[in-house]
Amino acid sequence: MAEKENSLKLDAVPEQIREALTLFTEKLNAGLGDNLQSVTVVGSSLTQDYKSGRSDINTVLVLGKLTVNSLDAIAGMAKTMNKKKISAPLLMTPAYIERSLDVFGVEFLDFQLTHQTILGNDPFASLSLVKKDVRLQCERELKAMLIRLRQGYIAAAANRKLVRDILISTVKGLTPLLRAMLWLKDIDRQHEAEPTFKKAGAEFSTRHGEASRSGIGIDPLVTVAKWQYEKIRLDEAKMKSAFESVYTIVERLADIVDELEI
Question: Which of 6, 18, 52, 54 is most buried, with most CB under 10 Å away?
Fold first, then answer.
């Protein structure tokens, strides 16, 4: 096992989140000691999608062992994390990472694309993902997303706020899947959400050089993504239109990835 580097590496992290990460890492070191192998920042807090005071800071902790004591130590930091907008971290061990590449390829691809390891050794840079595993996960996730959309719409019983929240959650979940689909086709991926939608929209609107019957329009995704930070009230017609648009995009993406040749 490589010895943990104890110096905090914040130079590549946006200045606006450094204070929060410094305090968080100090508490992690105090609570977890040598069991803490690395701390890695992932996701939107490293990109222009980050909204200070509104967006969460997401991290992955690699531990030598996952124990209840470790969970208790991190749970004891909940007030600090909430105050600093730090989400509950994802906890992994080296063995977990190694044995999960075939089932969580989409997530690991996203970690690889947008991450900064601020303590210890980088756990993601050298990972190698298999395309057929990633394609299968994309198909499974998209088809499960369709089920959740149908069930969520029924359960919401025309409550427009609930439907809005369902759509926001869906579009957030679509972003890493679209990046993974671009990776499957050896296309450069974008760090931010809107450029990802545009790139995917352009790529998956054609097939074999011809217009695709399953092409996607990205405008509804861009619109819904903005709702997360806007106070918006939808009338019934707009709610139904937005739901139908997002549902249709997910359905088409599921068809596209189902037909994708690897």
Answer: 18
